[in-house]
Structures are given as structure tokens and as C-alpha cells.
Prior knowledge:
The chain is mainly α. The chain contains 5 helices and 2 strands, in the order E-H-H-H-E-H-H. A two-stranded antiparallel ribbon has the order 1-2. The longest helix is centred in the N-terminal third of the chain and has 10 residues, at 11-20. The protein is globular, with a radius of gyration of 15 Å.
Amino acid sequence: xxxxxxxxxxxxxxxxxxxxxxxxxxxxxxxxxxxxxxxxxxxxxxxxxxxxxxxxxxxxxxxxxxxxxxxxxxxxxxxxxx
Length: 82
């Protein structure tokens, strides 16, 4: 089975799930095995990719799925038809 080299994540989704779980950044970072600073960069969108081991640990710590952590395609504004 082929694993991607990196996973793209949505920082807003990470922050929302972390807050719903009642965890601080420091708590989640320690549980995942990453630095609080790296987690901060992920949540703020400065960093958008994670390698598989920490991504899998993050997904497990937040008890969520790939779909919930992945960025959603930007909605494209459609021109109005008249």
C-alpha cells in the first residue's frame, strides 16, 4: 500500500478539533510528539503539510478522519447569469 509523502492539513480544522477536545496546544503537541511551535504553525496556516507519522498521531489524538483534517477546495465564485 502506498502512503503519500506528506498530508496537507487545514489549520482551522485542527484548531477547532483541538478546542472541542478541550486541549491546549502544548497538550496536543505532546500527545502527537511534535513541538508546540510546529502545531501553532499548522493551526495558523504557516505550515500546511505533515509527514505520515505525526499526521497519523494527530488524527488519532483528535479522534478524527482524513476528510475532517484535509483542506476543502476553495469555492469558486460563479458569474451570475442574467
